[in-house]
């Protein structure tokens, strides 16, 4: 009587099957990375790009909202800011009579109300804490008007500067991310790296990034 060998005693000749993100029988899609001249540099799996994008989204949700998201109507805010700055110049240039001061008081209050329509609640609360309202019945003096207008102009200039800084930081982060993905790709045929990597012939390393540059790697 022949005894059947135990399953554990059977030789393990078959290697473990490697699982990929693509379903069986389907080839995973790849994304072609091209340079500024439109020439393809390399390819990478689409799953790797999706994973990097998902990680960036998680980081954004965990942190504070970007300043660019807090300004819901940037064009409107910039128009009102330019108007307030021009009014401040007018207040400095010539003396104002009582009727002019009364009118400027109304314009100032209306400007703040319109600004708040284009801002997120966080910025609206900050602006309300900083801007002290005029008295209801009294007419402000020229000095009071200059202080109120200058304060509002300074706050808006700081807001615009923050937006510019945030946009520049986003551009640099996107460029660094694509550069990191490009450098992590395997070398092409012949064992040579992609042009632009350290120690490789061709374009050389990435030059120093200057503020305002919007170039870099893109899909």
TrEMBL record:
State the UniProt keywords alphabetically: Proteasome
Top-rank taxon of the source lineage equals Bacteria
Task: Fetch the InterPro entries from UniProt.
Answer: Proteasome_act
Q: Which residues cross the membrane?
A: none
Biased composition of type Gly residues is found at 188-219
Region feature (Disordered): 1-43, 183-219
Can you list the GO cellular component terms from the UniProt entry?
A: proteasome complex
Q: Name one GO biological process term.
A: regulation of proteasomal protein catabolic process
Q: How does it assemble?
A: Forms a homooligomeric, either hexameric or heptameric, ring-like structure which stacks co-axially with the proteasomal alpha-rings.
Give the family, as the similarity comment puts it.
Answer: Belongs to the Bpa family.
What name does this protein carry? Answer: Bacterial proteasome activator
What species was this sequence derived from?
A: Nocardioides marinisabuli
* Organism classification: Bacteria, Bacillati, Actinomycetota, Actinomycetes, Propionibacteriales
